[in-house]
């Protein structure tokens, strides 16, 4: 980033934050929004409240009170942010991504903390989990736009919801009760849509895709999705026969049956892993090989095939799909993807999209693998903006911090989209030296804002974050497995959502 770009960011940030003025009742409270966002965009190694307060020569207690005690409408700020994205970044091929992230925390006092699966540690650990809705616009040469629209803490049921005294000690309001992660995610989707955000597609991992009720909610909304599902997810490969009652049953003939109902001699639903192994319908569908994108460990090469399938509705009858179309002849698509370089890695996806023009397999595979964007957003938000550096314990303070991190990331994503150079890593994926590519990452390493004064590095560096170093990318020429994969796929097309017709 050159000097001219650094000089541009301050007035652009001022204009960006000006649209949130009415979220604050007092001017003295509003000024801390500028300080907090500038602190997250700064080059501080640790972006918790105390280093940021030192950075701006403010008493740390002022920023603590801004998060926890001062009155301002964080819900309006979130709504205004979503309206801004809908107004300035609407796109016919936009993808919404539902995912969660975790923050390692010690002790029992931090709101919503408990021992649970922690993605940051890769194991069961003491952590806080938040559910997020991401927004991704595909772009050629890495010039896409990716950000977070919403973030919300997950309140565990047994250890928090049922212990209201503990909730009150951690500042959890009495009206905040246990909601499943699926319910939180769907409510986030509904809020975003109500504020004008439109998604051509939604995608999420198998934790969310395993819930049939969750999928049916999007069917009812007419929202296209590509959902990863577990290997034991069941479906019909042929339409089951349904019996309908066409006349009144004789009362003397016994107990009346419920109609409509499935015919007794129908084939049962089959797990998708067994469909891959034994289904003649899937066997007849040809494998198609795709170079999805270039990752930091080399090319991602997958082969995939797609067939129509049938899913049950609430009554166990075959559903027709909910996106305004038939989705082929089955109402749904089953997409099976296998890693060419590691054939033991197989993923299964279900989509409710209607009949797709062109190469349907490429379209669905492109949507399914667009989940990497939210992982990159989490990496940038934690590594560049300090989303995981919070040292507050109260529920409201953590919730506000998550929303302010979404705000800071949206501005940074916009600024980089408008000012980054033409060069980038292939497919917008960060290269092994990502700080050297203007378009590779959302957050650059150098300071974005001029410091307000001299910084006492000794005071800030008491507990500095680790310095991440770039890993050397393995030589593709010397790796026989990668070389073999490239030979198999050099004639195949790359997955690109930009060529997909919006549905």
How would you summarize the topology of this molecule?
Elements: H1 3-18, H2 27-41, H3 49-55, H4 60-68, H5 74-88, E1 95-104, E2 114-118, E3 123-137, E4 145-153, H6 157-161, H7 164-169, H8 181-194, E5 201-204, H9 206-209, H10 212-221, E6 225-229, E7 234-235, E8 242-243, E9 261-262, E10 270-271, H11 272-278, H12 280-284, E11 288-295, E12 298-309, E13 332-339, E14 346-351, H13 360-368, H14 372-383, H15 395-419, H16 457-460, H17 480-489
Parallel strand pairs: 1-5, 5-6
Antiparallel strand pairs: 1-3, 2-3, 3-4, 6-14, 7-10, 8-9, 11-12, 12-13, 13-14
Helix pairs in contact: 2-15, 3-4, 4-15, 5-15
Care to give the gist of this entry?
The protein is α+β, with helices and mostly antiparallel strands and about 500 residues long.
Word description of this protein:
This protein is an alpha+beta fold and 503 residues long. It has a domain at 3-204 and 374-460. The protein is 34% helix and 18% strand. It is built from 17 helices and 14 strands. The chain has helices at 3-18, 27-41, 49-55, 60-68, 74-88, 157-161, 164-169, 181-194, 206-209, 212-221, 272-278, 280-284, 360-368, 372-383, 395-419, 457-460, 480-489; strands at 95-104, 114-118, 123-137, 145-153, 201-204, 225-229, 234-235, 242-243, 261-262, 270-271, 288-295, 298-309, 332-339, 346-351. The strands form three sheets. Strands 1, 2, 3, 4, 5, 6, 11, 12, 13 and 14 form a ten-stranded mixed beta sheet that branches. A two-stranded antiparallel sheet has the order 7-10. α2 (27-41) crosses α15 (395-419) and α4 (60-68) packs across α15 (395-419). The longest helix is centred in the C-terminal third of the chain and has 25 residues, at 395-419. The chain is globular and about 75 Å long. The two termini are 38 Å apart.
């Amino acid at each position: 980033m050159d000097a001219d770009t650094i000089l541009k960011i301050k007035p652009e940030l001022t204009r960006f934050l000006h649209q949130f003025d009415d979220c604050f009742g007092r001017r003295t409270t509003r000024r801390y929004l500028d300080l907090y966002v500038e602190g997250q965009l700064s080059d501080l190694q640790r972006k918790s409240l105390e280093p940021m307060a030192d950075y701006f020569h403010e008493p740390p207690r002022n920023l603590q009170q801004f998060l926890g005690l001062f009155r301002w409408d964080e819900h309006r700020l979130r709504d205004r942010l979503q309206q801004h994205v809908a107004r300035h970044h609407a796109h016919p091929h936009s993808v919404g991504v539902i995912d969660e992230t975790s923050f390692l925390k010690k002790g029992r006092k931090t709101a919503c903390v408990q021992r649970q699966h922690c993605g940051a540690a890769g194991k069961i650990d003491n952590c806080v989990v938040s559910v997020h809705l991401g927004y991704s616009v595909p772009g050629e040469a890495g010039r896409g736009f990716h950000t977070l629209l919403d973030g919300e803490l997950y309140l565990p049921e047994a250890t928090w919801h049922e212990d209201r005294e503990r909730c009150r000690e951690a500042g959890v309001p009495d009206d905040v009760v246990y909601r499943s992660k699926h319910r939180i995610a769907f409510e986030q989707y509904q809020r975003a849509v109500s504020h004008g955000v439109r998604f051509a597609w939604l995608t999420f991992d198998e934790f969310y895709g395993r819930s049939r009720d969750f999928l049916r909610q999007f069917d009812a909304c007419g929202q296209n999705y590509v959902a990863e599902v577990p290997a034991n997810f069941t479906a019909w490969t042929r339409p089951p026969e349904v019996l309908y009652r066409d006349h009144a049953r004789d009362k003397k003939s016994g107990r009346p049956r419920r109609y409509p109902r499935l015919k007794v001699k129908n084939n049962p639903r089959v797990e998708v892993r067994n469909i891959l192994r034994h289904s003649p319908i899937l066997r007849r569908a040809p494998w198609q090989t795709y170079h999805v994108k270039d990752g930091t460990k080399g090319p991602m090469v997958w082969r995939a095939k797609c067939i129509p399938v049938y899913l049950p509705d609430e009554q166990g009858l075959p559903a027709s799909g909910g996106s305004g179309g038939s989705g082929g002849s089955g109402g749904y698509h089953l997409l099976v993807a296998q890693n060419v370089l590691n054939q033991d890695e197989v993923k299964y996806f279900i989509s409710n999209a209607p009949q797709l023009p062109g190469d349907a397999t490429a379209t669905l595979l492109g949507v399914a693998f667009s989940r990497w964007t939210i992982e990159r957003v989490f990496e940038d938000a934690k590594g560049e903006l300090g989303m995981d550096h919070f040292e507050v314990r109260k529920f409201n303070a953590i919730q506000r911090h998550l929303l302010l991190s979404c705000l800071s990331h949206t501005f940074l994503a916009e600024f980089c989209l408008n000012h980054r150079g033409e060069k980038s890593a292939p497919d917008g994926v960060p290269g092994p030296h990502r700080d050297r590519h203007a378009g590779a990452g959302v957050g650059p390493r150098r300071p974005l804002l001029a410091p307000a004064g001299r910084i006492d590095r000794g005071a800030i560096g008491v507990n500095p974050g680790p310095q991440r170093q770039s890993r050397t990318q393995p030589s593709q020429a010397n790796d026989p497995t990668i070389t073999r994969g490239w030979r198999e796929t050099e004639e195949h097309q790359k997955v690109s959502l930009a060529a997909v017709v919006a549905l």
